[in-house]
Structures are given as structure tokens and as C-alpha cells.
Amino acid sequence: xxxxxxxxxxxxxxxxxxxxxxxxxxxxxxxxxxxxxxxxxxxxxxxxxxxxxxxxxxxxxxxxxxxxxxxxxxxxxxxxxxxxxxxxxxxxxxxxxxxxxxxxxxxxxxxxxxxxxxxxxxxxxxxxxxxxxxxxxxxxxxxxxxxxxxxxxxxxxxxxxxxxxxxxxxxxxxxxxxxxxxxxxxxxxxxxxxxxxxxxxxxxxxxxxxxxxxxxxxxxxxxxxxxxxxxxxxxxxxxxxxxxxxxxxxxxxxxxxxxxxxxxxxxxxxxxxxxxxxxxxxxxxxxxxxxxxxxxxxxxxxxxxxxxxxxxxxxxxxxxxxxxxxxxxxxxxxxxxxxxxxxxxxxxxxxxxxxxxxxxxxxxxxxxxxxxxxxxxxxxxxxxxxxxxxxxxxxxxxxxxxxxxxxxxxxxxxxxxxxxxxxxxxxxxxxxxxxxxxxxxxxxxxxxxxxxxxxxxxxxxxxxxxxxxxxxxxxxxxxxxxxxxxxxxxxxxxxxxxxxxxxxxxxxxxxxxxxxxxxxxxxxxxxxxxxxxxxxxxxxxxxxxxxxxxxxxxxxxxxxxxxxxxxxxxxxxxxxxxxxxxxxx
Length: 585
Known about the structure:
The protein contains 20 helices and ten strands. By secondary structure, it is α+β, with helices and mostly antiparallel strands. It has two domains: about 5-420, Ammonium transporter fold (Orthogonal Bundle); about 470-580, Alpha-Beta Plaits (2-Layer Sandwich), CATH 3.30.70.120. It has a four-stranded antiparallel sheet with strand order 6-9-5-10, with helices on one face. A two-stranded antiparallel sheet has the order 1-2. Strand 7 (about 515) and strand 8 (about 520) form a beta hairpin. Helix 10 (about 215-235) runs parallel beside helix 12. The longest helix is centred in the N-terminal third of the chain and has 30 residues, at about 15-45. The radius of gyration is 31 Å and the shape is elongated.
């Protein structure tokens, strides 16, 4: 995607109009990918931070637009280049807008702007749920103003030193995804893991990794489909003819599909069940992997990219989480950094001379030249990004801070950063079962002085007056057995009951499950709780009937609790006691 070539195509009379329209449509598709990133990141994190995730993705584009207009585009695409490293700002977009339009620069500006926003938004998911919003906004401005424009100029400005070297990154495996991925890795390390993610022993060594599942795999999957759809514009917008466009669409389809199949089979064999969230990551990993060489690889080469991406994303996600204890909630590092690097290198290995780009890959020609150039290019891009972003995060951490307080993180960033009780207005956030290890909590020890203790109020015992006795029977059972229990209760004369969905734990721990390769503790299992108050029907009859219906002989059949009830009042009629339990009118 070279600036001069695209500008000339746009300026051509006949073909330029068609190309210019398609180029702008491609830019719109890439813009729509912001929605995809927002959905993936929101779905893979907890509901109490959903509004914060959406806000960060929105501001990535808006802040990026402001700084890209002011200076970023000039640094990236200026005709005057200093030693092939950085453009000399001319600010034509602000000072000579008419000339800017006539020169065919407007479509190039829009397209590179949406690319810039993509690089910035990758980082949001890796630092989710614990990063200060103000710090994230500053980071977003820095990467859009200095990091992306300069390294992308090396890759896509015809005066850039990597272009002159022969480096090939058609749509951004290196210039966008590797940049976002290495920044995500640095950010995740510097901001630290979420509370409760890694449990340490007294020596400070991590002895347990907790899975923290996202609140909506549906949103994550929707985001994946949106991203895949937008990727056809991401990779195909700069195609110079119908043949190249068709070839790009083929490779952009094959690689992610193969990657997803590989990950599905691999996680199925590894964990006993196919991992849904990891397969979503695999689709994106395959797309990232094919982005650099979408015009240079054939169908077989794109399938090879997909196979490697499918394995690579699982290995990297689990390596970071389980071994290195780097908390990346959405797998941004595994998807974008690992596969951005792989996709860049794959061009040097798998580029087919008969493909539209006409490059000489090692496996087709035996030449190491292109592979060497690709290695030099990706190393330079990663080094520049790492230096700039490490400095940025370090300064933020030492000044205004990167991370919210423990209390704010536990409450959720929606409430503490944006004043939203919940991003889902009519729903109360689910109670979590994670031990945060919160040092500020005060545990009851039983040693509180009498003067400071809360007095215990003892309820006087009910004197037996000869009135009918009321008993509450609480039955906790498996969900599939509820209908049988309800029918059995009605057969013995029970006409009223209260039914609730509950979570609980006991001897039953559930079968082992995995979320993104990490075992999920199933100590809170879904159950049905049935509350019945009886007087006429014998308590023992209710208990024996319930035992008979619920018994399977396996752990988890349920529990039955029996309580005395002092009185019963029917609100509609005002009846009390025995009469209140009868349904006779």
C-alpha cells in the first residue's frame, strides 16, 4: 500500500473514479471494525466494565482523528522525508484543503486514519478492567501522534527506508497489528494483573491461576464476525485490479477459516471440549497472519499461515497466562503480536512469484533475500514501538498513575470512572466468586471488645398454645429434577411453593472445565431451591416424597432443610395460620 501508487490510481480519470470509491468503501469497512473490537473486548470482560470498554474504543478513534489531522498524517505521508525516517510536516490538510483534495490525498488520509485507530484500539483489551481512563486517553494520543505515523511511513510512504529496502507488508501485519500487540504486552505488564487473577503464597510465588470468564461470549462472537467482515476492506481496499482483489479475498477467507478449525480440534483434544473463546481468537489470529501477505501468497500458502496461527494463538495465550502470569483478558498479545510477527515472516517464506505481488518467497525460489528483509523490518518496527510505549507508560505510571485503586477495580470502572451503575440498565451485575485477596478488608476474629460489639438480639421462644404447627421445608436440587419434584409435591396435596434459581457449593465440585486453557473452579453450581410451608400435609410425607423423586445415588442430588414457622398470613384475605395455607375459597 504505497502512497504514490494509490494517489496515481485515484488521479486517473476512468479507473481512478472506480478505485477511489472502492478505496473509500474499504476505509468505511475498516472504521466499522471499531465496533468489532468493542464487541470482542466487551464480551471477553466483565459486565461491570462494559461501559468503560465502549468508551475507550470510541475515544481511540476520536482522539486519533484529532492528532492525525493536526500532525500525524503529515509525519507519515509528507513528500519530504528525512533520511527515510520521518516526514517533514506540510500541514496541507489544514492550510490548503483545496490542493489537498485535488492531489488525491483525502482518501489516503481517511484510510490511514482508520488504520491508525485500529493499531490504538488493540491495546484496550489487554489493559482492560484496571486502567485509569485518563491514562488510557493520553496513551491513545501518543500512539496515534508519534508511534504509528512514523513506523507506518517507513512501510507505506514511497520515501520510507523499509519501502526502499523491499519490505512487504501489504495491509499491516507489522505496521498495525504487531505495533498494537507489542504495546498491549508492555501495557499489560506495567499495569499488572487484575485482582484475583493470580493467587500468591506467603513467599510471593504464584501458586494458582484463576479463570475470569467474560460476561458475554455472544458479544465476543458478534465482534469476531464484524471484524472478519471489515477485514475484506482492511486487506482489499488497496487492490489495484480485479485479479488482485479476488486473490486477496481468497487468502483473507482461507487463513482464518483454517486457523479456527485447527484451534477447535486442538483445544478439543487438549481439554476434552472445543474452546469457544479461543476459537474466536483463532479467527482473528488467522486474519492478522494473512494481512501482510494477502496479495503475495496463494491459497496453499494462506492455509499454511492459518495452520500456524491456529496453534500459535493457543500457545501464546496460555504461555502468558499460565506460565508468565501476564494478564491479557482478550488475548490481544497472542492474536496481534504473535501472529503479526508470524504474518510478516510468512511473506518471506511463502510468497508465490505467480501471486499478484510477484514476490520470491524462500519455499518457492530458495532465496533468503526477502525473508532477511522481512526480519529486519519487523525488528525495527517492534524496537521503535517498544521504546516509545515503554517510555510513555513509565511516565504515566510515575505521574498520574496507570491503575485504578483496588476499591475502584472491585466496584467496576463503569461506576467509578463514568458514573454508570451498570452498562445494562435493567440488570444487576452478577455476584462474583473470586477471592481478590483485598488487603483492606477487615475479617471478623471474634475478639472484638464487648463495648464495640453489636449486641445480639435474642428472639423469645414461641410458647406452644396448641395451635396448628407450621413447617417450612427448603429443598435444593438439580435443575433437571424440578419438574418431577413439582408434580410429586402436587400429588401429595402441596398447592403452593416458591421456586428460585440459586448458586451454591457443597461436596459436589462439578466436572473440570477450562476457560482459555485455565481450569475453572466450579464451586458455585446452578441449583433450584423450592420453599414449601406445610401444616395439613405431614412433614415426613413431603421429605420422603422429595427423597424418592430426587435420588440418583450421585453427589449433588440435593439437600432438604426443615424449619419451624411462627405464623402464616394470606395478604389478599387477611387469613392467618392454618386457614392461610388452604386454597379453598
